[in-house]
Amino acid sequence: MKPEHQIIDLAKVKVSCTNCSLTELCLPRGMGEDAVRKLEKIIKRASPLQKGEYLYRGGDPFNGIYAVRSGLIKVYANSDGGEEQIIGFYLPGEILGLDAIENNTHACFAVALETSSYCTIPFADLSGICKVVPELQDQLFKIMSRELTNENQMLLTLGKKNAEEKVATFLLTISNRYRQRGYSANDFKLIMSRQEIGNYLGVTFETVSRIFSRFQRDGIISVHKKYVNILDMDALKKLVSGCCG
Amino acid sequence: MKPEHQIIDLAKVKVSCTNCSLTELCLPRGMGEDAVRKLEKIIKRASPLQKGEYLYRGGDPFNGIYAVRSGLIKVYANSDGGEEQIIGFYLPGEILGLDAIENNTHACFAVALETSSYCTIPFADLSGICKVVPELQDQLFKIMSRELTNENQMLLTLGKKNAEEKVATFLLTISNRYRQRGYSANDFKLIMSRQEIGNYLGVTFETVSRIFSRFQRDGIISVHKKYVNILDMDALKKLVSGCCG
DNA sequence: CGCGTCGTTGAAGCCGCTCAATAGATGTGG
DNA sequence: CCACATCTATTGAGCGGCTTCAACGACGCG
Fold first, then answer.
1. N or C: which end of chain A has fewer CB within 10 A?
2. So what's the pLDDT on residue B185?
3. Which of A130, A147, A159 sits opposite B158 (nearest CB)?
């Protein structure tokens, strides 16, 4: 047994946005030192979530928003009929929970798809700092605005694209987001299952599987289990821009 | 001819949120007198848009957000392939343009579907007031949060529902929004065309037409041209909650 | 009246779903 | 370590809901 003093309460660990590699993607992006220091005072870091553990559930009171530090968080909504619709997958540096501000209650569910660490940002405190740190207010407006833009894109994908275009769009979006984070844009692991990809895109998982296979036959990608290698990025891009390139 | 002094430059007309019947739906909701007065100072009212006139287009610089005063504004995005996806229909009291904050550029198009009046709220000014009027900042966060919630609902509709459920959901949503505004929840005119309803819901206009006819045959609604009368609200609600009541 | 737009309705075809079988991966317990 | 159960992924076959294509009627407008 290790001595007791090595047991660390992660909730009390001081969060350092300054030293965080995600700063340029996350809330502190473009903020001054002073502002970041104020931010650090309210942000809490809890112990990481294990796969399958929930960050919040529908009906939970809204306490704060969350920034993903590592791992992957799935957010989904439940329809009246009980089936779930995945709203989004959140990568390190991205912020979730913003949709609960209005009602002070979460309507969606947020669950870790792999071991994930995150920061909790109590919203009352954040809102308070916004009132004295104009840059932070602007940054929060921008983050919410970006979320709206992302969802608009998703509406377009769900409403206008066929299954093949949906899957191609999905792969490209994931690829871009990994590149932003310094990972390879061509080789990556899809943490989520085929089931979850299909749910997100509004198609069945069999269709996702078939299209992956087709893309592989056509030399556009190569897939082994959850690992994807994009071989022909241009072909993928051509697929999403409809037709007639 | 009327004398010249009756020609009014509407852009210079003082806007009075205080006297506006939409206050409780719009930006000033729940704000104190002082805050509303500050808000009134920056809000501009231009001459109404005629049917088919644009509030903004994709690529336009972002100057401010807009509050609908009367009429109906359609917002849509263009895919790479050139086809449009309608993102939403905005009724009096609702605010649009929030998705352009991040990039300082509009990615979507906003066009009037009938004669519509609106208020322009320059975002730089609004953001400035937010910094001294905490209630306004909170209200803006809430409005953006609500927009996110709405879009989440729409993702669920597009991703999980069949054509019948989509149309039923659409009718119920419209009905609720009219009721909120003091209009009849059972009798209303659909300003948008079948084409636009279908586009919004991710189905063809023929399908929308067929489902309207089916609903009428089943005694759920009665439709004549653009006029809809909801006869059996419960039946509609049962349709959207999937199955098994 | 003639023309264009919008809405309705029918018929046929296709894309994606449903159902099903199989294989591989993963985990568990004897 | 292997037998067994479970879960995920792949692939095939057939079906069905929605789309596509087409014809027609109802309006509105010059």
1. N
2. 96
3. A159
Considering the domain architecture, whether residues A127 and A191 belong to the same structural domain is answered as no
Residue A9 binned pLDDT confidence (cut-offs 50, 70, 90):
low
Q: A39 in a domain, yes or no?
A: yes
Which two tokens mark A151? 């969802």
Q: How far is CA B156 from CA A83, A121, B28, B83, B95, in A?
A: 10, 27, 30, 22, 22
Q: Do A21 and A129 sit in the same domain of this protein?
A: yes
Task: Report d(CA A120, CA B243) in Å as an integer.
Answer: 38
Q: What is the mean pLDDT of residues B108-118?
A: 96
Average pLDDT, chain A: 92
- Judge whether B65 lies within some domain: yes
pLDDT at residue B245, as a whole number: 43
Give me the helix-helix angle, A123-130 and A134-160, nearest 10°. Answer: 120
Percentage of chain B lying above the pLDDT 90 cut: 81
Whether the Cβ atoms of residue A65 and residue A97 lie closer than 8 Å to each other:
yes
- Cβ distance B201 to A159 less than 8 Å, yes or no, reads yes
**B135 and B165 both lie in a single domain:** no
By Cβ distance, the residue of B85, B102, B140 closest to A160 is: B85
B39, B67: one domain: yes
CATH code for the domain of A10: 2.60.120.10
Residue range B146-158: mean pLDDT, rounded: 98
Same domain (yes/no): A32, A88: yes
pLDDT tens digits, one per residue of B181-198: 999 999 999 999 999 999
Residue at A173 is within a domain: yes
Residue with CA nearest C1' of nucleotide D21: B206
Do A106 and A168 lie in one domain? The reply is: no
Q: Does A40 touch chain B (CB under 8 A)?
A: no
Q: How many independent structural domains does chain A possess?
A: 2
Same domain, B191 and B72: no
Structure tokens, B206? 């023929």
For residue A3, which amino acid is it? P
Cβ separation A85–B241 shorter than 8 A: no
Which nucleotides of chain C are near protein (any atom < 7 Å from a CB)? 6-11, 15-20, 25
CB contact at 8 A, B114 and B69: no
pLDDT at B18: 87
Of B85, B102, B130, the CB nearest to A155: B85
Nearest CA in chain A to B245: A81
First vs last C-alpha separation in chain B? 64
Higher pLDDT, residue B35 or A88: A88
Q: Which residues of A27-36 are buried (b: 16+ CB within 10 A; e: fewer)?
A: bbeebeeebb
Where does the pLDDT of residue B2 fall: very low under 50, low under 70, confident under 90, or very high at 90 and above?
Answer: very low
User: Residue B127 is part of which domain span?
Assistant: 4-146
Bases along strand D below 7 A from a protein CB = 8-13, 17-22, 27
Within 8 A of A156 by CB-CB distance, chain B residues are: 77, 79, 85
Among the candidates B146, B178, B210, a domain finishes at: B146
